[in-house]
Hints:
By secondary structure, the protein is an all-beta fold. It has strands at residues 3-7, 10-13, 18-25, 32-39, 46-51, 58-60, 68-73, 78-83, 92-100, 116-117, 121-126.
Amino acid sequence: QVQLVESGGGLVQAGGSLRLSCAASGRAFSTYAMGWFRQAPGKEREFVAAITRSGGNTAYADSVKGRFTISRDNAKNTVYLQMNSLKPEDTAVYYCAARPSVSGSTYYSGGTMYDYWGQGTQVTVSS
């Protein structure tokens, strides 16, 4: 089992940047594929980015491609989401998620595929 704690959210102006972190407790972090999701008020949760357990492969939603970067440091049990060129429509609660992964080359973009979730961190982008 793994516990996830997000941090790094806040208020930023449009065009600015934020880096979210998700710290995982428990052993064997490197065996988990990780993902970031977000949920805006009145909207369904949506996929943002995913990374394989080794960090070798990544995937992004079209809405964030070229602006966001997911990465991980398995030595620090942490996954990151670097968010640049932020837009007001990026405003949401951001969640990280983890799923045990046998394959080192598989990432997951569906929320139902993940077993563990953090509590979320609020990102607000002002225009």
